Amino acid sequence: MFKPAVEAIRAECSGERALDLVASISRHHRIQASPGFRAAAEFALAELERAGLEAELLSFPAEHATSFWSLPMFQEWEATQGELWLIEPEERKLADYQECPLALIQRSGPGALEADLLLLEDGEELEEYAGLDLHGKAVLTKGDIRRVYDLAVERGGAEGLLFDGMRELPIRSRLDLLDARQYTSFWWTGEERKCFGFVLTPREGERLRQFFKEGKRLKIRARVKSCFWDGQIETVSALIPGASAQEVVVIAHLCHPKPSANDNASGAAALLESARALQALIAQGKLRRPKRSIRFLLVPEMTGTIAYLASREEAIPRIIAGINLDMVGEDQERCGSTFLIDRLPGAAASFIEVLVRTLRQEFTGELKGFSGLGGYASFRYGEVPFSGGSDHYVLSDPTVGVPAVMLIQWPDRFYHTSFDTLDKVSPKMLHLAASLAGSSAYAAASAGEREARWLATEMVAQFKSELLKLIQLRLGETLAADGEGRVRELAQRLAREGAYLAERAGKGLESLLALGAIELGEERREVLEFAGRELARARELISRETKVGLAEKQAGKPPLENDQARLIVRRRYRGPLAQLQPYVRKLSPEDQEAWHRLAKESKERPSILPTLALYWADGTRTLGEIAALVELESGERAEQLLAQHFRLLEKMGLVELRAR
Fold first, then answer.
1. b/e per residue 61-94 (b: at least 16 CB within 10 A)
2. What is the residue range of 91's domain?
């Protein structure tokens, strides 16, 4: 349907030009609300204006007195010096901000210290501090920096933190990157005693730990020059005007420390190249001006998106869909990554996911088989359930109402480290991301009734494929199950999951009405009839092969069997929870410990579960209904975790729980 436009955009986009943009952006130290971020934003603004787009630099207050929705803002920050020396048992420089900006914990306060260094290991539990005198000292830890700050600095009186941790990923461990430094940051709420901190390489951290094992006294000297002030945080906005007031948004975050080439200079560069290509093609008459405007946003991740939307709430209903570009430029062989479509959350069904997935097929058949037939991709690609963690998390929140998919490469063995450098970026992958994002945005912005009807057939076809894959999976599990009880349980699960997929497909079809006033009755009936027919066939097969009698309609197991199940959850804010720490600080010490324990106990479960639950909390659903929907969406049964989470959010003043 959009093949000519895709081919034109693909031909116009340049991966080499995008790589040059990555090089320019990654020279800036782009901490949110800082002179470095502003310089990068001004560079991006100039590029957009040079390409002929209507562009502007928007500023929002960066100060503790301002909030946007549930987000308390923070002050502007800049550091000019940060040096850390070991002076006993030997003298050696451990970290220097001027040599590597990630050597300083971002937003470190100013200070000078010559003091003993103590080892905390993780430092996340109160028991580790028994008998320790931390006053006037610094501590070395691999633990969660916010938790260690709370216990060691605020409660224990330590002056500074040294961090040698590294987030573990499936393709890397802490000791795989011995000489890298982990991106680490403080997020001040305005009420704390600001301290400074340094990030060590795992190699250096292990060397210091060996000294501790040998019983040696460690002493360090640190000096940090930095300042905070009530300033500004910027967002870059550019527009390709359409014929109507509706908009499609393409977004990428511009922030992160220098260099942060893939995360996310690559996403910002792909956005800039996509915008340039579309503007050039429209100006040359190779593409028609779209029906809807296409807006390009370069933001401080999540915080800038929230500030932008909260400042123009009246414009949000005009945005029909979004595409988020985050970490799209990875050289897959070096980084170990796969090019992914991060799907919509279940609470935000929309045509945009199917559109992007369908257009991606235009990019995955460039190689042919031995005979010269067929086609396959020269890169790894796939799709994953909604994971949040970036700006589509803000847009897709049902209280915002802009369904947005994310294009991302994951995992990346150099993620959030000083090794995320330009040599890890691939012009080929930048070209792919810019071309696919531009094609998808243009298609969504240009679609009318004819394209909407075509999309409806695609959505029904993809629903059928997804349902059949689910049925095949569950049939295999059910036919191999032991015992009548297990067979019934799995059959009930399949019935619930199939009904959920059909309901979501119906909601997705409704989103097509934003593209044109089309009749969708036939497609809705086809979804329901197909689901009913295939699920009935599966039920009959299970019953015949297992000799277990199954009811025509499978009853669902109640997600909770106590009074909590009947509590309705109402959110008291708009938008997602991008920064919870200010609210956690308002809890009693006992509840703060309960929050920590809940987070620790949940580490082995998908971190997205509380977010999915909040998305389903529309003020009419009970906690039991929400837990059931989260299970259908994620496959995770998490009633008690979600109940505890909502109880603590209620104490923070973020949700209201009331009996039906």
1. bbbbeebbbbbbbbbbbbbeebbbbbeeeeeeeb
2. 76-227
